[in-house]
Amino acid sequence: MTTDAERLEGASPQFRNFDWEKAKNFYYVAKMGSFANAGRFLNISQSSLSRQIIYLEQHLGCPLFSRHSGGIKLTRKGEELFTIISTTFSELKGFTQNTHVETPNGKKRKIRIATTHADAAYIINDLILDYNEKHPEVSFEILTNDQLLDVVMNDVDIAIRPYDPINNEIQQEPLFNLEKRLYASIEYLEKHGEPETLEDLKKHRLIAFGHPNLHPYADINWILRLGLPEGKLHEPIYISNSIECLVGAAKKGLGIISGYEKMSIIRNSGLKNILPSVTREEGSGYFIYPNYLKQDKDVLEIKEFLQANILA
Questions:
Q1: What letters, b where the CB count within 10 A reaches 16 and e where it falls short, cover 252-268?
Q2: pLDDT, tens digit, for every residue of 22-59?
């Protein structure tokens, strides 16, 4: 007897009235290797995402994933569809890449740059403004988002993010390194003393980010593990998901924070680096752009400008 899966596998895909939104969701499930990871990325429940993929399989008349206790795996038809969708979206983006914006001074090329909130505000923004002053023919849109990002599918020209080891549709070149350190105000240290060892942190007030799961690119609450056995965390005295609020709390003498020494908000805060030998290197920020822009004059000039001037 022929099973439903076998009938689906042998069927010809039907592309009439094809649902490209569900195709995009299929793309991310395939790329990330699980419904759970793709659901978090897309902000869709795992059950809803699974239903959409089942609908897509029924519409196409073929199974796209084989499901088993160890997870999911693309079927032969699923691999074919993944290639088609990846190529199609990439080619469409290449076709529509030269977006422009109308200004009082005429039409300008618009370049969209995506990065995290902190990197945008305290590392690249001033440099982009300097570049724009010298190149008024270009208009910039800076998009800040601390979530995972697909450069091609999310309609941006440039992303400044950590290296992506699995995406072969993008160019990636190193831009900067970040190192995290510990900081406190002079007021706090005069009142509570300066820690001399990691063990001393148990007696101090620590300030931390809220919702660390929303910051997939960084070990955002590294400070809460310092000096403790694996699996244990310090209890923070204050939590916020805003770096500005955290630095503000530290400047008022509330407690100790961790921060990146090369970010202007830390450099200009007046906070003192404590336990200077205690650091955490969090890898490099990369200048990332789609393959179809690898010969784009504007993108290459921006890359060279940032590489020459960033954190100088």
A1: ebbbbbbbbeebebbee
A2: 888 888 888 888 888 888 777 788 888 889 889 888 88
- The CATH label, of 1.20.120.430, 1.10.1780.10, 1.10.10.10, 1.10.510.10, for the domain at 4-95 is 1.10.10.10
In one-letter notation, the amino acid at residue 226 is L
- pTM over 0.70, yes/no: no
Q: Which CATH superfamily is domain 178-283 in?
A: Periplasmic binding protein-like II (3.40.190.10)
Residue 11: φ, ψ to 5°:
-80, 155
Closest CA to 274 of 230, 226, 209, 234: 226
What is the CATH number assigned to the segment(s) 100-169+284-309? 3.40.190.10
Q: How far is CA 99 from the centre of its chain?
A: 23
Q: What is the pLDDT of residues 134-190, one digit of tens each?
A: 998 888 988 887 666 666 655 688 999 888 877 778 899 999 888 899 999 999 999
Contact 13, 62 (CB under 8 A): yes
Place of tokens 């406190």: 184
